[in-house]
Amino acid sequence: MTPFRVRPFALLRWLGVLLFACVALKIGAASGNKQQNLSPLRQPSDPALYVGADTCKTCHQPEAESYNRGPHWRTETGKHKGPQWQGCEACHGPGKAHVDSGGDATKIIRFTALSAREASERCAACHEKSESHANFMRSPHLANGVGCTTCHSIHAATARHDLLVSAQPALCYGCHRDVESDFAKPQHHRVNEGLMSCTDCHNPHGAFLPHNLRTSSWQGLVCSKCHIDTAGPFIFEHAPVKEQGCTACHNPHGSANPHLLTRPQVNQICLECHSTILPTTVAVPMPTFHNQATQFSQCVLCHPAIHGSNTHPEFFKR
Ligand code: HEC
Ligand code: HEC
Ligand code: HEC
Ligand code: HEC
Ligand code: HEC
Ligand code: HEC
Ligand code: HEC
Ligand code: HEC
Ligand code: HEC
Ligand code: HEC
Q1: What is the mean pLDDT of each run of 10 residues along the chain (318 residues)?
Q2: What is the pLDDT of residues 222-269, one digit of tens each?
C-alpha cells in the first residue's frame, strides 16, 4: 500500500482559504445584524427603527385580529416606555426596514426561525419579572427545548384562557404519555374530570422544588394547600410526612390502591421503615407483639392519626 503523502503547502493554502471564508462570513453576519437590528436577544431603542402596530395591521389582517382579541394590545398603553416595548414590534423587533421593503420576511423577527431559548428570551424580557416565571430560564422544560411558544400561541391559541395552544390536560399529555396512564388508574386526582389541573400542583414555568412542584405554606409539597388536616403542625409529628413528604406513602397522580397508596397493603408501606428486627430499621421498631400474620397487618385500624396527632405519640387518636 502506498503511504498517504502530505503536501504541506497545499494544506496551508486550503487552511488560508478557510480562514478567509470564516472571517468574511463573520463580518457579513455582524454587519447584517447591525443594519437590521434583528438579533433576537436585542431590543434597540432608536424610535426611527419602529413604525407602530397600526402600520403592521394594514397588511396583516388575521394577526391583527388575534392581537386585538388577546392581552398584548395593552403593551401600547405603556407610552412612557420606548417603542421596543410596545405592540407587534415588542415581539417581532423593529419593523421599519420590513415595511420599507414592502414586506421582506428576512427583515423582521420570525418566531418560527428562532430556537426555543431565543423565542423564550423575547417573551421573558417582559414576563420574567413576574414571580411565577422567575425560574423558567433554568427549568427542565426549556432545558429540553420546550419554550414559551411550544405551549402558548399568540395568534392561533385554541384554549379559552392563557393563550394556550390547547387546554390542559391534553396539552401536557401530548408529551407526558406515562402521566396520562397514571390518571387512568381507578384511584386518581380528578384532573381528567376537570375538577383540578396539572398546574394546581406543578408550575410549568419552573420551580425551586424538583419536578416543577409548587410549594405549600411550609415550603413542603403543595398537597397541604388542599389537605390542610394532614400537614399539622402536630404535637406528635410522624417524621416522614415532613421529611420525605407525602409521596413517601402516596402516588400523587393515580394508583390502583385505596387512598392513592404506593402499595396494595398498608403494612407493606410501614414495614419499609418499621420492622420487628431492631438493627436494620430506619425508625423505631414495632413492638414484638405486632405479628403480621394476625390483625396487626391493618396498622391504621389502631394508629389512625397516621399523619400526626395532637393527643397521642403513637397516633392512636387524632
Ligand atoms: C406593506 C405591507 C406590510 C406591512 C406594513 C408589514 N408587513 Fe409584514 N409582511 C408583509 C409581506 C408581504 C410579508 C411576506 C409574506 C410571505 O413571504 O409569505 C410579510 C411577512 C411578515 C412576517 C413573516 C411571516 C412568515 O410567514 O414568516 C412577519 C412576522 C411580519 N411580516 C410582521 C410584520 C410586523 C410586525 C409589521 C409591523 C412592524 C409588518 N409585518 C408590517 C407585508 C407587510
Ligand atoms: C406577544 C408577542 C407577539 C406580538 C405582540 C405579536 N406577535 Fe406575531 N407572532 C408571535 C409569535 C410567537 C408567532 C409565531 C406563531 C404563533 O405563536 O402564533 C408570530 C407570528 C406572526 C406572523 C407569522 C404567521 C405565521 O404563519 O407564523 C405574522 C405575520 C405576525 N406574527 C404578525 C404580527 C402582527 C402584525 C402583530 C401586531 C398586530 C403581531 N404579530 C404581534 C408573537 C407576537
Ligand atoms: C412588551 C412586553 C411583553 C412581551 C415581549 C410579551 N408579553 Fe405577554 N403579556 C404582556 C402584558 C402587558 C400582558 C397582559 C398582562 C395583564 O393584563 O395582566 C401579557 C399577557 C400574556 C399572557 C396571559 C394571557 C391571558 O389570557 O391572561 C400570556 C400567556 C403571555 N402574555 C405570553 C407571552 C408570550 C408567549 C410571549 C412571547 C412570544 C409574550 N407574552 C411576550 C407583555 C408582554
Ligand atoms: C409546558 C408548557 C408551558 C410553557 C413552556 C410556558 N407556559 Fe405559560 N402557561 C402554561 C399553562 C398551562 C398556563 C396556565 C396557568 C395555570 O393554570 O396556572 C400558563 C400561564 C401563563 C401566563 C398567565 C398566568 C401567569 O402565570 O402569569 C403567562 C403570562 C405565561 N404563561 C407566559 C409564559 C411565558 C412568557 C413563557 C416562557 C418564558 C411560558 N409561559 C412558558 C404553560 C406553559
Ligand atoms: C395532586 C398533585 C399533582 C397533580 C394534579 C399532578 N401532579 Fe405531576 N407530580 C406530582 C408530584 C408530587 C410529583 C413527584 C412525584 C415523586 O416525587 O415521586 C409529580 C411528578 C410528575 C412528573 C415527573 C415524574 C413522572 O411521573 O413522570 C411529571 C412529568 C408530572 N408530574 C406531570 C404531570 C402532569 C402532566 C399532570 C396533569 C395531567 C400532573 N403531573 C398532575 C403532583 C401532581
Ligand atoms: C412539547 C412537549 C411538552 C409539553 C407540551 C409539556 N411538557 Fe412537561 N416536559 C417535557 C420535557 C421534554 C421535559 C423534561 C424531560 C422529563 O423530565 O420528562 C418535561 C418536564 C416536565 C416536568 C418535570 C419532570 C421531572 O421529572 O422533573 C413536569 C412536572 C412537567 N414537565 C409537567 C408538564 C405539565 C404540567 C405540562 C402541561 C401544562 C407539560 N409538562 C407540558 C415536555 C413537555
Ligand atoms: C387542588 C387541591 C388538591 C391538591 C393540591 C391535592 N389534592 Fe389530594 N385530593 C383533592 C381532592 C378534591 C380529593 C378527593 C376527591 C376526588 O377527587 O376524588 C383528593 C384526594 C386525595 C387522596 C385520596 C383520599 C381518599 O380518601 O382516598 C389522597 C391520598 C390525596 N388526595 C393526596 C394528595 C397528595 C399526596 C397531594 C400532593 C401531591 C395532593 N393530594 C394534592 C384535592 C387536592
Ligand atoms: C407514612 C405514610 C404516609 C405519609 C407520609 C402520608 N400519608 Fe396520607 N395516608 C397514609 C395512610 C396509610 C392512609 C390511609 C388511612 C386510612 O386508611 O385510614 C392515608 C390517607 C390519606 C388521605 C385520605 C384520608 C384522610 O386522612 O384524609 C389523604 C387525603 C392523605 N393521606 C393525604 C396525605 C398528604 C397530603 C400527605 C403529605 C402532607 C400524606 N398523606 C402523607 C399514609 C401516609
Ligand atoms: C419513610 C419511613 C416511614 C414510614 C413509611 C412509616 N414510618 Fe412511622 N415513623 C417513622 C419515623 C422516622 C418515626 C419517628 C420515630 C423514630 O425516630 O424512629 C416514626 C414514628 C412512628 C410511630 C410512633 C413511634 C413512637 O413511639 O415515636 C408510629 C406508631 C408509626 N411510626 C407508625 C407507622 C405506621 C402505622 C406506618 C404505615 C402506615 C408508618 N409508621 C410508616 C418512619 C416511617
Ligand atoms: C391491634 C392494634 C394495633 C395494630 C393493628 C397495630 N398496632 Fe402498632 N401499636 C399498638 C399498640 C397498642 C402500641 C403501643 C405499645 C406500647 O406502647 O408499648 C403500638 C405501638 C407501635 C409502635 C411504637 C413502638 C414504640 O416503641 O414506640 C410502632 C412503630 C407501631 N406500633 C407500628 C405499627 C405498624 C407498622 C403496624 C402495622 C404493621 C401496627 N403498628 C399495627 C397497636 C397496634
Answers
A1: 46 48 39 52 90 97 96 88 94 96 96 94 88 83 95 93 96 97 97 97 91 83 90 91 92 96 94 75 79 80 94 85
A2: 998 899 999 888 999 999 998 889 999 999 999 999 999 999 999 999
Cα separation of 287 and 276, whole Å?
7
Distance from the alpha carbon of residue 189 to the mean position of ligand 7, in angstroms: 6
Q: How far apart are the first and last CA of the chain?
A: 88
Give the residue, by CA position, lying nearest to ligand 4 atom 18: 199
Separation of alpha carbons 200 and 160, rounded Å: 18
The grid coordinates of residue 79 equal: 407610552
Burial of residue 93, with CB atoms counted within 10 A of its CB: 0-12 exposed, 13-18 middle, 19 or more buried: buried
* 298 Cβ below 6 A of ligand 9: no
CA of 147 to the centre of ligand 7 (A): 30
Q: Report pLDDT digits (tens) over 56-65.
A: 999 999 999 9
pLDDT for 4: 46
- CA 119 and chain centroid, separation: 15
**Can you tell me which atom of ligand 9 is nearest the CA of 284?**
18
Rg over CA atoms, the chain: 30
Q: Which atom of ligand 2 is nearest to the CA of 56?
A: 35
